[in-house]
Amino acid sequence: MQQMASSNTILQTIVEDEKRGRVMSFYSVALQGMAPFGSLMGGTLAARIGAPRTVMVSGVLCLAGSLWFARTLPAIRKVVRPIYVRMGLLPEVHG
């Protein structure tokens, strides 16, 4: 729930007003529309290799995604911080 609320808040904050509806509709499709496909893939994998192995594979993929995100976060901050400063949400840092 925290991730969903955070992602939603960040997206709505950094997107320009005239593009917000389009971006949020794409976000909704990506978030909710892809869940059935993930369930289908998980069920197919579980039928082939078993549920315990499927959970293990899913956990490894989640860890890999977390590591990728952690490595990408500084680049995301470089892009988002100036937008937040321009909007007055963060103080400008000099130095």
Can you describe this structure in just a few lines?
This protein is mostly helical and 95 residues long.
Describe the structure.
The chain has about 100 residues and is an all-alpha fold. It is about 85% helix and about 0% strand. It contains four helices and no strands. It is elongated, with a radius of gyration of 18 Å.
Helix content: over 70%
Poorly predicted runs? none
**Mean pLDDT over the residues:** 92
The helix-and-strand class reads mainly alpha
What's the Cα radius of gyration?
Answer: 18 Å
Q: How many alpha or pi helices?
A: 4
Order of helices and strands: HHHH
Number of strands: 0
Distance between the termini: 37 Å
User: Outline, from the CA principal axes?
Assistant: elongated
- What portion of the residues fall into strands of 2 or more residues? under 5%
> How would a textbook summarize the main sheet?
none
Question: Main attributes?
Answer:
elongated, mainly alpha, 95 residues, single chain
